[in-house]
Amino acid sequence: MTDQPHPAQPSSHRDQPAPALFTWEFATDPYPAYAWLREHAPVHRTRLPSGVEAWLVTRYADARQALADQRLSKNPAHHDEPAHAKGKTGIPGERKAELMTHLLNIDPPDHTRLRRLVSKAFTPRRVAEFAPRVRELTDHLIDQFARRGSADLIHEFAFPLPIYAICDLLGVPREDQDDFRDWAGMMIRHGGGPRGGVARSVKKMRGYLAELIHKKREALPAEPAPGEDLISGLIRASDHGEHLTENEAAAMAFILLFAGFETTVNLIGNGTYALLTHPDQRRRLEESLARRETELLATGVEELLRFDGPVELATWRFATEPLTIGGQRIAPGDPVLVVLAAADRDPERFADPDVLDLTRRDNQHLGYGHGIHYCLGAPLARLEGQTALSTLLTRLPDLRLAADPAELRWRGGLIMRGLRTLPVEFTPSA
Ligand code: HEM
């Protein structure tokens, strides 16, 4: 982190009005506002809809450094809010819940220990072995609407795919997975429902996971069987003789569900939308899939993440000591939000950043974060994203939007960016 002001940062930016953030227009297209911030106020203090004041970091170089800066803690205890405001800010982890002691809310050395333990269970190999199941799930979901000629791809495809996939991977029995679908739907407010429904869903999910972990622990065979589920792997994982406690295992299962669910919904939703609105790019991808090549699919999904990624802002960080980001002094206790979506469109880092180019190779985007909290589920997200997009394009070749893009509604959450619905049409097929 440099102590020198960024040379391109004008000192007079305070004279210019900052664009309105967190409005309906902003949720629909935040990129013009991010371009303004990158240019005029790259480290910008703002009041969030919850009332909390936080710094937004929007330039790629600053964002990348901030994500890896150990002086920025993930532990909400470092947040310098008056005590009476704590727990009312909407900052995850300020709510009193055992489930909140998870990877995204802790620092080394606890983070190092827990991440090492979960990495022993959640291996790239386990994810690779899971590929046939993801293909089967994808086909099964498309079968449900293929004869109809129309669908809402968020509710009928992007939403159920990751929840069933993670449930399967964790080892939640199939007969219980629809409960998870309902709880998760309530949690991201797809399902609407009564007031307090979200809190009740979290409680039910937690109760269910605690019981499942307990049952699996009782029945755990001495040696792992091939294809063992992830919860059993978590129970088995140990580090210098130290096991995860049942509480830690439950918090870990919960964060895998939580971190891996809405993100993947939005990767599939935003990615499909981008392809449907960029016909030349879509055609190139279809031609490459027809030749059974996988290279463009791989670079393409990375580019879709950069271009309109599921995670708009990285999760919270709090300064533990005075520091300078992009020439701006940050005081201890100040919350810092790294705006991944803004950094990934920085023209200082990416050529023609507002152009979707599925062949882009120099693409070290920040969509999965950076540093010690880099997304643990990236191999699974890539598998799901690549399978979902390639199967959709191959099975429904004349897939098209059934709504004017201007009418589509984006969810204006703080951390995530995604569509509420994605209505499509296509020629019915068996
Ligand atoms: C962390 C993005 C899918 C599990 C992160 C972070 C980002 C991210 C940006 C870092 C947040 C920060 O530094 O504040 C994404 C995107 C996904 C995705 C864009 C889909 C396209 C998944 C999946 C899983 C998962 C499928 C697991 C099933 C996690 C976990 C962390 C994490 C456990 C915390 C890691 C740590 O703190 O050490 N993800 N994620 N993610 N992600 Fe993902």
UniProtKB/TrEMBL annotation:
The record lists the lineage as:
Bacteria, Bacillati, Actinomycetota, Actinomycetes, Kitasatosporales
The protein's matches in CDD domains, at most eight in alphabetical order, are given as: CYP107-like (cd11029)
Species assigned in the record? Streptomyces corchorusii
Name it. Answer: Cytochrome
To which protein family does this belong? Belongs to the cytochrome P450 family.
Q: Which Pfam families match?
A: p450
Give the start-end ranges of region Disordered.
73-92
Among Gene3D superfamilies, the record links this protein to:
Cytochrome P450
Any single GO molecular-function term of the entry would be: iron ion binding
Keywords, A to Z, come to:
Heme, Iron, Metal-binding, Monooxygenase, Oxidoreductase
- Superkingdom to which the source organism belongs: Bacteria
